[in-house]
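User: I'll paste a sequence; please echo it back and then give the predicted structure.

Assistant: Echoing your sequence first, then the prediction.
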Amino acid sequence: MEKARVISVLTLSLTAVLLATGGVDACDGAPRMSAVDACEQASTADVMRQLCAAMLGTSPEPKEVTGYVFAAMDSNIAQFLISYEAADKVRQDAASSEQLSAACETCMGKYDLAKMKMVYSGDRLRSCDMSPVTREDLLTAVVGIDDCATLLLNAAGDKTPLRRMVLLDRDRAVLLLQLAILLLPNKS
């Protein structure tokens, strides 16, 4: 768990530096807007706007949306590591039911896949490839995390701390997808 916290702090620090310096402005034709505007366009409810502001900040200065996507992606991956370790801990707990342990193991695989899809998407965006495959990969990540939440609901009910973590991860992944959609033409 300590390793995940260190990775999370380092990732969030790098994200803050990138956002503060505008270090990701590189793609011709990518929209520019403030963090506030990006959160407004990517969010479907006040809770999502608050989550977005916590990830991206509230700067009124316009920046390339690509930077916001990377910030959200880095934040998601850091949180996924923490949730993965939490699922592993529950999976190994002798007090966990067989169904809950199996759900946690499946969730760990879904988190691995979601993280991989985000990394692939980030690689494409770093080369300014804004193809629909990025949207598909990020949607796959959202679906995997949502599937995990459903597995945990069926195995242990709706009030477990791990399931609450996973639901927040799902919302964060949806927010990342919505931010990426601001970049991606709808040609699929």
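The helical segments are 2-21, 35-42, 46-56, 65-92, 98-126, 132-156, 161-181. The CA atoms of residues 73 and 176 lie 6 Å apart.
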